[in-house]
């Protein structure tokens, strides 16, 4: 996990760091909480004497009695060496039942040792690397709210077991107001075995993961002595199966990017990185954004660059916010191929996602805070997806804007041009952008809410939403593709029984279909010579190609929005 460039630092010199930087790790950790209930609502609504930062530190004198297993010897037992656990009979059913509450198979997880062995998922080149022994120390912050016992404790055990003891300063566990008795009563006792290497910080109110991470980082103050320059480094995130807890490896497939709706996205390795990285197995990858849960940063730099936005609640948005901010304010984000951390990807959130004041859209309001502070005029593209948020009050942004001023950060346009130049901007450098409206005036091209991020989908039409609707926004690009954020309109090569061809939306590539078009004219697919035709098609139906006929009203289209030609 630790890159060579980190320099050793004398603990005594911590007061005058100068431009040297301390660092810490943030790890996400796993699983659930069906039960965060009325408790946090009460706190959220007015119990403000209970400051969100007010936490109790467990400082009982403790001694390390936990023994790190000898992983060079083969271990037997369920799940060892990363294997999945195959349950049968009653247990299998119970495990499946519990998926609904925990979004992972806790029955399977409970069968696995907390000190489980896993295969080394690093490449051969990574394994051959030798790291200096005298690297600086790291603090690891793990936050949780009402997670299941075994995945949570296995996270703690893994960090403890697998970090060279002299490099691990401490593990700071932040309990974000868990309500489950087990976590309230048995956790401290279990942690005693780690001595003061593991500290527990309990919040007296629900903080949400963003404020919980800030709190955790604050509790590492004065303890962290690892130095790093202004980079945030991320591991390769290996996937752990949610159904049988199998540890699956993975490589650096690509980089983190984003959707204009401000959700995290993974993209392939950009050409520029392919060229820059001389040794693809071990060289770091410059990544525009990060998934959010797992990264290391110089501690001082983390706070200097604005930590997280404490106005963000519960879950979501903070990973893109810190990503944009770090790049725009002079830092960078790197993925280290030789660093691997496993994560159980869950299909849902097992804990209560309701934010303060009953907010049911924490990702949306968090993202609006990010868009308003960091995206300049490009926030318009976020609002295309989230029109309802345009007039929503998301709290005071003065302090976040001041950070941007104080650090003299660059514009979002700079970020787009320099950090993520391949990102498609739907209304820049295009020939047209907007709703694609048939001259019959009522029907528009529409994705019909079919999910374009899950593979090729069929394009349809729907009543035009003249006020704007993200499922109806299209661009006619300078290279003549009729496209959306990542998908391009194409022809289904297989005709339907009636001889007509359906219209597809598929991942764009440079050799995909081109369309010719004039305002109020046909949309003609160049290679087939066929045209988009809505004759006899109703709102909500799939669209078809037909032989071009410029006189047919069902083939006359115009962009309702903007032409740039
Ligand atoms: C991903 C990130 C997560 C965060 C999130 C967006 C990874 C592996 N994880 O979430 O770190 O960036 O996207 O916000 O990239 N938790 C609390 N209090 C809360 C809610 C959650 O302490 O109010 C804890 C939770 O118990 C868990 C951690 O935060 O330990 C992350 O939550 P998650 O695993 O549900 O989030 P995930 O992986 O979808
Ligand atoms: Mn997670």
UniProtKB/TrEMBL annotation:
| Record has tRNA processing as a keyword | no
E.C. code: 2.4.1.-
Give the main location: Golgi
MF GO annotations:
carbohydrate binding; polypeptide N-acetylgalactosaminyltransferase activity; translation initiation factor activity
Going by the record, the broad EC class of this enzyme is transferase
Q: Which domain of life is it from?
A: Eukaryota
Q: Where in the cell is it found?
A: Golgi apparatus membrane
Which pathway does it serve?
Protein modification; protein glycosylation
Give the UniProt entry's GO cellular component terms.
Answer: Golgi membrane
Alphabetically list the UniProt keywords: Disulfide bond, Glycoprotein, Glycosyltransferase, Golgi apparatus, Lectin, Manganese, Membrane, Signal-anchor, Transferase, Transmembrane, Transmembrane helix
GO biological process per UniProt: cytoplasmic translational initiation; protein O-linked glycosylation
Cofactor(s) recorded in Swiss-Prot or TrEMBL? Mn(2+)
The answer to keyword Amino-acid biosynthesis applying to this record is: no
Mode of membrane association: Single-pass type II membrane protein
Tell me which family the UniProt entry assigns to this protein: Belongs to the DENR family. Belongs to the glycosyltransferase 2 family. GalNAc-T subfamily.
Q: What name goes with this protein?
A: Polypeptide N-acetylgalactosaminyltransferase
